[in-house]
Amino acid sequence: MRVAGIDAGTNALRLLVADVARDADGTPTVVDEIHREQRIVRLGEGVDATGRLSTQALDRTWQVLADYVAVLRASGAVRVRMAATSALRDASNGADFLAMVSSTLGQLPEVLTGEQEARLGFYGTAAALPAQWGRLLVIDIGGGSTEWVVGPAGPAALAAPLQAVSTQIGAVRITERVLRSDPPTREERADAQRWIDAECTAALTALDLTGVEQVVAVAGTALTVGAAALGHALLDPYTLHLAEVRSDRIHSAARNLLTSTRAHRAALRYVLPGRVDVIGAGGLILSRALTAVEQRTGIRAVRLSNRDLLDGLVLSLATALP
């Protein structure tokens, strides 16, 4: 069955078209990935300050969504699941977004709770991993929030009880609220770190990390910082997928991104144009998250993954995932 998922995040609008099926035991799997695309639309621009989606952000999103609808029609996808996350949870005029999507896509998107976002993201990440990886902590740093989930690797993730926490720290949110200078001042960096550390402590206090064997960081922020840490010239999500990176290399890359100017970051070919202004904040979140995890588990490395919420949306169309 050919299906599609669309993820309307705070920073990016992403599309995945794939053929899915069930194994003999009923486990949903992606048989073939047909089309994967992301474009930076910054849907959540200014939402942290105003509580509203701007007209400009809605227009940028509409233009990309219209392109995605054309891809869907050409691909022959028979089912589509579209989800919106942090920006829509925070915006008072979310009805404007819902109306725009309904008129363009022909169906309403779901506005996921933080916990739903975390769980679907975990399914998308963990289901395709080897079961031998054991118990995982998956960290998904978005534009408006960061999700933390503990559960098993492999197909068991689809049915296992999970622990999920969503925190209000994201690359766009922290940049807009705190890291306003170019480059950020020492005081701004300290303020951002205090905020992030408090949220990391709250998240990890709420989770039982007993038996966690692997930490997996997913999506664009993690892949970008990972590319920097590994010395890659370009951002290739498929090359970076499942790569292991020592935490100290993440810390160094994150520090360099945070303290550099926007002009310097713009010249780095592994930083997409829409991430140039927010990757410093994203890197700081990842670095502080790994520091907090190491203090509690002793784990000093992270795996990268380009499988996340978008993949969870697609898998959910082949089963009864929430």
Automatic annotation (TrEMBL):
Gene3D superfamilies in the cross-refs? 3.30.420.40, Exopolyphosphatase. Domain 2
Q: Name the domain of life this protein comes from.
A: Bacteria
Q: Which residues form a coiled coil?
A: none
GO molecular function terms noted in the UniProt entry: pyrophosphatase activity
* SUPFAM superfamilies tied to this protein: Actin-like ATPase domain
Domain Ppx/GppA phosphatase N-terminal intervals: 21-317
User: What are the TM regions of this chain, as residue ranges?
Assistant: none
A Pfam family that the UniProt record links to this protein: Ppx-GppA
What InterPro entries would the database entry show?
Answer: ATPase_NBD, GppA/Ppx_hydrolase, Ppx_GppA_N
Its recorded name reads Exopolyphosphatase
Q: Which organism is it from?
A: Nakamurella aerolata
Upper lineage: Bacteria, Bacillati, Actinomycetota, Actinomycetes, Nakamurellales
